[in-house]
């Protein structure tokens, strides 16, 4: 390991197991600029909802997204691709789970066979990683997408593939349990509020 590596992975403050690799991102993520294909649906990457069809995003949020100008060449994305968008400096990169097309202003990264996308879905949205990418480039603060050369400034942990899957499955399970717990708490609060409401009419003379 070179002397420069510790600086590039300082966001991993807790360290990593000895058998994990610390790698330059270009080793495991390739920049792709594939033209849109006939029938591709327009996808919108978002911090809160991930990557979803633009129409669905507008229905959920009520927001009006700027439509693609006629003649503008969009980029094709595949499931498993990661997308750097205009708010990456706030929420990390987003994982595409369906094929489609995105704005040419975005940076599309395709993982190699050494990557389990479900693991890096968590890594590339972790608070430590987001803090690090915001510190290595000022352009992100201007609302610009993170370019490939900027993405490569922050080195990444690379566990064995089977371990990546195991960790991802565990994190997904824990997050599901947390979401269910929060939903239960909301239901209890609503029931409590409802029980305090006097639903019986007040007798009148």
TrEMBL record:
Keywords: DNA-binding, Endonuclease, Hydrolase, Nuclease, Restriction system. CDD domains: RMtype1_S_TRD-CR_like. GO terms for molecular function: DNA binding; endonuclease activity. One of its GO terms (biological process) is DNA restriction-modification system. This is Restriction endonuclease subunit S. The lineage of its organism: Bacteria, Bacillati, Actinomycetota, Actinomycetes, Micrococcales.
């Amino acid at each position: 390991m070179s002397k420069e590596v510790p600086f590039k992975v300082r966001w991993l403050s807790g360290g990593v197991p000895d058998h994990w690799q610390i790698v330059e991102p270009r080793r495991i993520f390739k920049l792709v600029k594939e033209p849109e294909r006939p029938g591709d649906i327009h996808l919108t990457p978002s911090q809160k909802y991930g990557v979803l069809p633009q129409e669905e995003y507008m229905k959920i949020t009520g927001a009006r997204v700027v439509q693609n100008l006629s003649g503008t060449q969009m980029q094709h994305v595949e499931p498993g691709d990661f997308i750097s968008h205009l708010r990456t400096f706030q929420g990390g990169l987003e994982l595409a789970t369906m094929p489609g097309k995105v704005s040419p202003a975005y940076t599309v990264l395709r993982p190699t066979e050494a990557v389990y996308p479900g693991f890096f879905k968590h890594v590339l949205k972790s608070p430590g990683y987001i803090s690090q990418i915001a510190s290595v480039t000022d352009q992100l603060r201007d609302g610009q997408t993170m370019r490939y050369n900027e993405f490569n400034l922050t080195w990444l942990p690379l566990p064995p593939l089977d371990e990546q899957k195991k960790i991802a499955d565990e994190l997904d399970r824990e997050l599901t349990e947390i979401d269910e717990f929060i939903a239960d708490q909301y239901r209890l609060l609503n029931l409590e509020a409802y029980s305090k409401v006097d639903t019986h009419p007040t007798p009148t003379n």
